[in-house]
Amino acid sequence: MERYESYLSLAVISAAIIFAGCNPEVATPTPPVTTYYADIDGDTFGDPAAEHIGDDPGTGWVTNNTDCDDDASTGAAINTAASEVENTLDDNCDGIIDEGFMTYYKDADDDGFGNELMSSDGKPDNTYILDHSDCDDSNASVNTAATEVANAIDDNCDGVIDEGFTADDGFVDDGTYFDDGTYPDDFVDDGVYFD
After folding, report:
1. Which site among 36, 74, 97, 105 is 20 to 30 Å from 128 CA-CA?
2. How far is CA 179 from CA 168, 172, 176, in A?
3. Whole-structure pTM value
4. Are 70 and 50 in contact (CB under 8 A)?
């Protein structure tokens, strides 16, 4: 009887092996696919732009893809776990430079001079700069480095409109010149207009 049970057990095992190989519902498990990211600076945070899908490529690759600066010379101290320090870099990869340390000002007209009325704690994007001396951030030709011209605008942001120009320049406050040298009654020699 013992011999019969051994043969029976062997037959059952053999049948199970054969059945598993022929049955399409019994699948061979596939290993999970893992994505790895290059970690050139060795801070254990990977570069989302440098990925490897498949087997573990080894040293220099991690499964974390949250590093915003994976440069070996500057990036080891820059990652999502870092604390922000005042250094004009986004140390903690939150998209804002030097938050908590420096105030930046919007430069909407891209003239290199910021608007003091539009500030941010840290630099949220490249339209924010440290300067805040622009008196008209909608006009790139108006800023503290501009040359004053006779146009009824404070071009150089010094608080005086058209300084250096007189009524003899033939300027009117709508921005036009008259060839005959005439000018409106509300124009005075000191360059100030009255309504």
Report:
1. 74
2. 11, 12, 10
3. 0.51
4. yes
Q: Which residues pair with 53 in a beta bridge?
A: 35
The CA distances from residue 25 to 11, 19, 21, 28, 188, in Å, are 22, 10, 10, 10, 96
| pLDDT at residue 178 greater than cutoff 60 | no
Judge whether 58 lies within some domain: no
Domain presence at residue 186? yes
Kindly state whether residues 153 and 173 are assigned to the same domain.
yes
Is residue 60, in this structure, part of any structural domain at all?
no
Do 139 and 179 share a domain, yes or no?
no
d(CA 162, CA 152): 6
pLDDT of residue 14: 55
Residue 50: exposure state from Cβ atoms within 10 A (0-12, 13-18, ≥19): middle
Domain ranges, residue 183? 147-195
Q: pLDDT tens-digit profile of 99-113?
A: 888 899 999 999 999
Determine the average pLDDT of the residues in 61-83.
Answer: 90
Average pLDDT over residues 143-165: 91
Number of domains the chain is built from: 2
